[in-house]
Amino acid sequence: MPRVVVDVMPKPEILDPQGKAVLGALPRLGFAGVSDVRQGKRFELEVEGEVTEAVLADVHRMAETLLSNPVIESFAVRVEQDA
To answer: What EC designation does it have (predicted)?
Structure first.
């Protein structure tokens, strides 16, 4: 089945406390060289049939109304190719 992925991230101007917590923990765990961390969400939707423009438009509406908070988050929709 085809898979459509929706990646949701906090908008750049929104504080990301989870990302900051990860950024603070990395050096304590021995990891260096990371200057910033932003934490988001990934949704994988398996769709029936072919991924058409209409299906992608539906997924876009899903992302706007349920999967993200458009006030503080942005999202990207993409089709993931079979491995």
So the answer is: 6.3.5.3
Give the CATH fold of the 3-80 domain. Mth169; Chain: A , (3.30.1280)
pLDDT at 75 over 70: yes
Domain ranges in the chain are: 3-80
According to the 3-state scheme, what is the secondary structure of 26-74? HHHCCCCCCCCCCCCEEEEEECCCCCCHHHHHHHHHHHHHHHCCCCCEE
CA–CA distance, 63 with 69 (Å, rounded to integer): 9
Q: How far is CA 47 from the centre of its chain?
A: 18
